[in-house]
Amino acid sequence: MSDRTIAISGASGKTGFRIAEELMAYGDRPRLLVRSSSVIPNTLMKAEHVRLSLQDPNALDSALKGVDALVIATGARPSIDLLGPMRVDAWGVRSQVESCLRVGVSRVILVSSLCAGRWRHPLNLFGLILVWKRIGEQALENSGLDWTVIRPGGLSEREETLEEEGVYWSGPDQQESNSIPRRLVARCCLEALNTPASIGRILEVTSSASQPITSLPDALMSIDR
Predict the structure, then answer these.
(1) Phi and psi for 93 in degrees, rounded to 5?
(2) Nearest to residue 163, comparing CAs of 213, 93, 220?
(3) Does residue 81 have a pLDDT over 80?
(4) What's the CATH code of the domain at 135?
(5) Alpha-carbon distance 149 to 187, whole Å?
(6) How many domains does one find in the chain?
(7) Domain that residue 114 falls in
(8) DSSP letters spanning 18-66
(9) Do residues 6 and 67 lie in contact, with contact meaning Cβ atoms separated by under 8 Å?
(10) What was the pLDDT predicted at 1?
(11) Do β-strands 201-208 and 166-170 pair in parallel, antiparallel, or remain unpaired?
(12) pTM over the 0.85 mark
């Protein structure tokens, strides 16, 4: 059994709640950081949760005190609010990084996106979302914290046959398409938390039934060859 308290921001989101569920199944204690209006899934009602604004530094510092790691699963959704990606994926990530530095949380996992930093991409029609995601990544990379960035491909809600599906792990800017179920992204975050060799790395992840099932430590050995 694990004995860690792991904060998850964006924990009521479609990827965030799955990260919290996977942490609970592993034996960790998730601390859900959610907005005042967020609805917490029934599966997480017994988990500790803190309602706050990520733009409130005092509330954020209080929420992060005493945790062993933070998983940042916040993300702007495509919408007519073209400033959303800047607020959430850049400044929101930066505010969380700054809070970690203030309260002494050293381990951070950031869920970003495949193609982060690309200018020529259809997703950038929604407020330059991939550009702002890269700025958020850079805030974490330059922080001096023990960071890992997970860049998933297209996200699906599928929950079936995942045990037969392998994750394709690669370094940055190696993959451009393909998808991965959110549940597997959650498991990738947990695996990164449990793999010290993932610190200081950007890892792109997609999956398929034809991809061999490979542990992250083994995948890192292949990436480094």
Answers:
(1) -65, -45
(2) 213
(3) no
(4) 3.40.50.720
(5) 14
(6) 1
(7) 5-223
(8) HHHHHHHHHT-EEEEEE-TTPPPPGGGTTSEEEE--TT-HHHHHHHHTT
(9) yes
(10) 57
(11) antiparallel
(12) yes
By C-alpha distance, which of 149, 22, 5, 145 is closest to 64?
A: 5
Give the Cβ contact number of residue 127 at 10 Å: 22
Model confidence over 143-182: pLDDT tens digits? 999 999 999 999 999 999 999 999 999 999 999 889 999 9
Q: How far apart are CA 11 and CA 18, in angstroms?
A: 8
Scanning the structure block, which residue is given the tokens 């381990």?
Answer: 107
Tell me: the pLDDT tens digits for 14-61? Answer: 999 999 999 999 999 999 999 999 999 999 999 999 999 999 999 999
